[in-house]
């Protein structure tokens, strides 16, 4: 449904998604210390959305919603426990094969589809090469990038990140067992105890097996997770992070060049600006905001190079270009005194927080010269889930009719043929738990937001969960609110002062209307297999993508491909 774009052809579509970028990190969204001239230019030549909302505050669920146009709870891609994203490249969870991505729709409409960069939606289901969750099984003709996600463990110089607390405990247990064996052996040799050698040997063997079992996964994270693939083939295991930026850029530009006769869909899913903030020499120390600022400025330069490639091939006016981030900036990412995560401007909270605006309100820019107005700002609520119906419509495709879709075609709003967003309610989940709901009351202009659950900040009043490293969705680390905390974002965008039943005459009316919407929404949910269950997120050696013969997984094929056929 909706108005027709005034074009009779299928446009090229370039979707740029940044990892962990905060809305306050970009010039055109009010940042005056970090330089982002290319993103700012995109906004100047197109439409800037100021209330663009991610469906989840973390990578895996947010990207699943982006790709499917559905809340991640519908595809089983949100958390039931504390593990809220896919944990290993060798795990069995991932975007279910029965979900239809927008890439699949566009593929059927004759588009050549490519994904360059981060995937983080799983790889295999049952065997090492079944590729059931792989991009090529989800509508992409070409894939180059990381099947997993960048993390500190990918850079040798960084302290480990994955399951840090658990790993510390396991190492401690191993040392304790080792010490016990040594003490017993010495005591036996000096005749202090009469334990048999058999018991000591058994204990030693147990200690060795215990150590080997956890070290085989955690001791080799760089080899298991930090890998680059081209289609189904592993090109680097482990990846050489220092050259990844230039390879990703080269691949994105080359995809545009070889498919210039179109129509093509290119999803550029940057590894920037996720920790460990891998930045090339060219940008180190160049920003006035430390390593994080350097990394953002390098990402902006990469955006510029992609835009240049579109321009040079004369495709600017026949290409819809979109720019966003998968969720808010990571406030708790710190190294010593340095802030290694983004800034979310006037909005409260950040990455990992399902309810507060800072976790889910992200940049959103559309450019299509001659079709969309230039230098335009839209304050209406929109969602990353809207990209799906929008691109499906432009490609002449039909969104799946056999399932609930949660996005809307944005073309009428972007072109100005309607004034209001078609989202009346947006539901803000943290894992499987509904934390907040926004109600866009079109007639009055009010923008109500009710919070049922909020994280407990550490230290108190700090604005994030610095003590835990990331805010939880449930358990002791959250507060439940009944009645809910209510805000009117049109008057209080920073969610600073909750409205009180005593002083807000509409309090009961608004909260009961939102409550009714929640009941109606819950009736549309159906049980699905949980992709992030403990069973699905565990490392499974038989699913580990491997270049070579497992466990001897190592290769570097990039040297050849830099000169060889591309």
First-last Cα distance: 41 Å
Number of helices: 15
What is the number of strand segments?
20
Helix content range: 25-40%
Major sheet attributes: 12 strands, mixed
Overall 3D form: globular
- Oligomer kind: single chain
Low-confidence stretches: 1-5, 561-566
> How large, in whole angstroms, is the Cα Rg?
25 Å
Proportion of residues in β-strands: 15-25%
**Would you tell me the overall average pLDDT?**
94
How does the helix and strand content classify structurally?
A: alpha/beta
What does this structure look like?
A hairpin with a 4-residue loop joins strand 15 (433-441) and strand 16. This protein has helices spanning 37-44, 59-68, 72-75, 102-108, 164-189, 197-218, 221-225, 244-258, 290-312, 357-360, 387-394, 411-415, 507-522, 534-537, 558-563, and strands at 12-18, 47-53, 112-118, 142-146, 228-230, 233-237, 264-269, 319-325, 334-335, 338-339, 361-367, 376-378, 382-383, 425-430, 433-441, 446-455, 478-488, 548-549, 552-553, 555-556. The protein has 566 residues and is α/β, with parallel strands linked by helices. The relative contact order is 0.19. It is globular. Helix 5 runs antiparallel to helix 6 and helix 8 packs parallel to helix 9 (290-312). InterPro entries: Alkaline_phosphatase_core_sf (IPR017850), Sulfatase (IPR050738), Sulfatase_CS (IPR024607), Sulfatase_N (IPR000917). Its cofactor is Ca(2+). It holds the Pfam family Sulfatase.
């Amino acid at each position: 449904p909706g108005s027709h774009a005034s074009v009779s052809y299928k446009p090229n579509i370039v979707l740029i998604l940044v990892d962990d970028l905060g809305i306050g990190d970009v010039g055109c969204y009010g940042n005056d210390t970090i330089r982002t001239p290319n993103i700012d230019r995109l906004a100047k030549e197109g439409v800037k959305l100021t209330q663009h909302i991610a469906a989840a505050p973390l990578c895996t669920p947010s990207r699943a919603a982006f790709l499917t146009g559905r809340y991640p709870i519908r595809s089983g891609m949100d958390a039931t426990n504390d593990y809220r994203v896919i944990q290993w490249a060798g795990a069995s969870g991932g975007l279910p094969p029965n979900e239809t991505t927008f890439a699949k729709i566009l593929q059927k409409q004759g588009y050549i589809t490519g994904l360059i960069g981060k995937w983080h939606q799983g790889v295999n289901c049952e065997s090492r090469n079944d590729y059931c969750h792989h991009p090529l099984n989800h509508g992409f003709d070409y894939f180059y990038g990381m099947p997993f996600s960048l993390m500190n463990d990918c850079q040798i110089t960084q302290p480990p990140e994955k399951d840090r607390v658990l790993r510390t405990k396991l190492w401690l247990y191993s040392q304790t067992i080792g010490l016990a064996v040594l003490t017993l052996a010495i005591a036996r040799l000096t005749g202090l105890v009469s334990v048999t050698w058999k018991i000591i040997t058994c204990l030693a063997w147990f200690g060795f097996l215990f150590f080997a079992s956890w070290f085989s996964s955690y001791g080799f994270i760089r080899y298991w997770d930090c890998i680059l693939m081209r289609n189904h083939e592993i090109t680097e295991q482990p990846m050489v992070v220092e050259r990844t930026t230039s390879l990703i850029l080269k691949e994105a530009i080359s995809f545009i060049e070889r498919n210039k006769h179109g129509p093509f869909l290119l999803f550029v899913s940057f590894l920037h600006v996720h920790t460990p903030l891998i930045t090339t020499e060219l940008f180190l120390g160049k920003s006035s905001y430390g390593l994080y600022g350097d990394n953002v400025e390098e990402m902006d330069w990469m955006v510029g190079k992609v835009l240049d490639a579109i321009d040079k091939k004369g495709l600017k006016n026949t290409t819809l270009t979109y720019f966003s981030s998968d969720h808010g900036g990571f406030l708790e990412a710190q190294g010593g005194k340095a802030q290694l995560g983004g800034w979310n401007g006037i909005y409260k909270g950040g990455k990992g927080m399902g309810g507060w605006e800072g976790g889910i309100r992200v940049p959103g820019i559309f450019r299509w010269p001659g079709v969309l107005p230039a230098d335009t700002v839209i304050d209406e609520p929109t969602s990353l889930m809207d990209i799906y119906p929008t691109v499906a419509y432009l490609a002449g495709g039909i969104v799946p009719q056999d399932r609930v879709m949660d996005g809307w075609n944005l073309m009428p709003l972007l072109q100005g043929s309607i004034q209001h967003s078609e989202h009346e309610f947006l539901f803000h989940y943290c894992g499987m738990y509904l934390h907040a709901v926004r109600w866009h009351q079109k007639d009055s202009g009010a923008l109500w937001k009710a919070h049922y659950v909020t994280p407990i900040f550490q230290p108190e009043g700090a604005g994030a969960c610095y003590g835990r490293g990331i805010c939880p969705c449930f358990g002791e680390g959250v507060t439940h609110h009944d009645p809910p905390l209510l805000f009117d974002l049109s008057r209080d965008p920073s969610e600073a002062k909750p409205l009180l039943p005593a002083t807000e005459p509409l309090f009961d009316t608004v909260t009961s209307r939102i409550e009714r919407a929640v009941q109606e929404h819950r009736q549309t949910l159906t049980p699905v297999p949980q992709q992030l269950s403990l069973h699905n997120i565990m490392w499974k050696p038989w699913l580990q993508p491997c270049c070579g013969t497992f466990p001897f997984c190592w290769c570097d094929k990039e040297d050849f491909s830099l000169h060889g056929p591309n």
